[in-house]
Amino acid sequence: MNQDNFDQNYELKYPTFTKEMVKDYTILLPTMLPIHFRLFEKALISSGYKTRLLTNCSDNIKQIGLRYVHNDTCYPALLVIGQFIDALDNMSEEERHKTALLITQTGGGCRASNYIYLLRKALVKANYNYVPVISLNATKGLERDRGFKLTLPLVLKLAAAMTYGDMLMYMRNKVISYEINKGDSDKLVTKWVELIGDEFLKNKGTSFKLLKKHIEQIAKDFDDIKINNIVKPKVGIVGEIYIKYSSLGNNDLEKFLIKEGAEVMVPGLYGFLFYCLYNTLYDRKLYKVSKLKVFLFKRVIKLLERRENAMIEAIKKTKYTPMNKFDKTKDYSYGVLSHRTKMGEGWLLTAEMVELVEEGYKNVVCAQPFGCLPNHICGKGVMKKIKNIYKDANIVAIDYDPSATRVNQENRIKLMLAMSRETLDKEVKH
Question: What angle do CA 43, 44, 48 make, to 5 degrees?
């Protein structure tokens, strides 16, 4: 390595994203939630940042990740870093010198807080040590880049994007398995993502009045899609946040389940954000968190609940059952796992499993990455307890890692679906 990369104390000097870079640099975003992240991209572009959402999702990503990340490391980190390096490999030298990478940093007990350091280490190993990495976080004490700021207008756009994303994802999940004209749901998603994205570029679409209007129209548009009345197995997907949502991480799990004739439900991103906010309220009792911080978080919860209610009320006007309020969701973990268990996805993972079973999605796939011990404890560790409470719950844990074969994963899911179909057949006969 070039000696110039080190200071007098032999500490590596990483490049930072400066104000001067904003105009010319393109910021790469990893993939996770396809609907949400397309809207997040538009929100960033409208705030003056040149961004590109990565879509490279080939099997080669795993091999690239293994080349630059230790194979005992968290699988999501391996995939995200592999996707970034693959994108850089396919650029010209000139493009690479005008590129930055954006990655979230939670600041919690999860190793995701350290992804940024693993990524920088991988960039040095790949000879891309000149590429700056931006930390997206709202945690005091973590990194701040002079060229990237979470301004209030940007936060409001990101919050609106999350609301629209959850609404579109929920309605798509309700409709897509039953649509008569295949592709209708995805066409609607594309239409709304483009419409809202265009409004973001015009600095619109974030006011509660307009957001409520759009949400009501989204619900109506999906309600108008022609569907059949075929009875299908209902499957819920829970797990570690990246593997739960990312088709790259879970080998296109949603698409596979739909192809196998199931209705699929994936809890929205709102739940994870609420979970993080409520954890701070619970910390007040244990760790004496400041009263001001608790007050501010309660205010944020109220603001989010207003938008959550707007989604629920809009869906109530359709033939579909809306999602629960998170205030109800959080209580589903009672009797199974304490709210003080918050590493990995903690008590949220348990609450979502129980909620899905209660709402008729008795078949649950718990998608878990290799290397995430807390997630395995909060997932596999509670399954027996849940099955003791809900005798008809059909829960299967699927591990995702570089060495796991897709055939074995899909065969286990097919077995779960076969058992579900047997139960449905018996119910129909009776």
Answer: 120
